[in-house]
């Protein structure tokens, strides 16, 4: 395979020309709403997941349903790892505490989890990184990025490692940028419609990472807002 500024050539018969391709440049992320509004958005997404998410992938892990009968074998393995990630993230988002859960275990436990060129755990982390960037959580984004880039590409497939590395550098594709923007603005149905068109379950797995991350951020911001109000009263 060879790559140049105008084409990608694979072997003797496959050639992708790039000279007529349009460059996509992301718009600024929309303003982040209040913590209460973010919590409402997460509840709306979780309720949709419980009805429409495929059995494959990780979306059904974040619905709030504590039963596991309807979860796939992958989702049952992933659920405690997602819980570990969410606990670490909640501590990372709390400026008054030093995270007690090892970043390495909380993040790396999801890398490479699942089959395919982009495993479900990787798609989950890409979604999480995108929404952290969108809502301005730079510290948590940087911490996640360090843990991910530090172990690539040995834990996952090469193409998935490339997507993770790009997300760690705050670069995401057009579809994911659209999904996160729609979620932040509260257009839940439109976000799910876009996600459902990405791969077999990749879009849904990204959504699982988005919801998990947004839920942790919203709760932490709500706690901080209440504490600030009490301190000022």
Set down the secondary structure blueprint.
Layout: E1 2-3, E2 7-10, E3 14-17, H1 35-52, H2 73-93, H3 103-108, H4 120-134, H5 138-149, H6 158-168, H7 174-184, H8 188-195, H9 202-232
Antiparallel strand pairs: 1-2, 2-3
Helix pairs in contact: 1-9, 2-9, 4-6, 4-7, 4-9, 5-6, 7-8
How would you describe the overall organization of this protein?
With 233 residues, the protein is mainly alpha-helical. It has one domain (26-232). 57% of the residues lie in helices and 4% in strands. The protein has 9 helices and 3 strands; from the N terminus they run βββααααααααα. A 3-stranded antiparallel sheet has the order 1-2-3, with no helix packed on it. Strand 2 (7-10) and strand 3 form a beta hairpin. Helix 2 runs parallel beside helix 9, helix 4 (120-134) packs across helix 7 and helix 5 runs antiparallel to helix 6 (158-168). The longest helix is centred in the C-terminal third of the chain and has 31 residues, at 202-232. The radius of gyration is 18 Å and the shape is globular. The N and C termini lie far apart (65 Å). The mean pLDDT is 88.
In short, what is this structure?
The protein is mainly α and 233 residues long.
Major β-sheet profile: 3 strands, antiparallel
User: Percent of residues in beta strands?
Assistant: under 5%
Helix and strand element order: EEEHHHHHHHHH
The order of strands across the largest sheet is 1-2-3
Structural class of the secondary structure composition? mainly alpha
- Low-confidence spans: none
- Calculate the terminal CA-CA distance, rounded to whole Å: 65 Å
Give the overall silhouette.
globular
| Number of helical regions | 9
Q: What is the helical fraction, as a range of percent? A: 55-70%
Radius of gyration: 18 Å
Summed over residues and divided by their number, the pLDDT gives a mean of 88
Please indicate the count of domains. Answer: 1
| Count of individual beta strands | 3
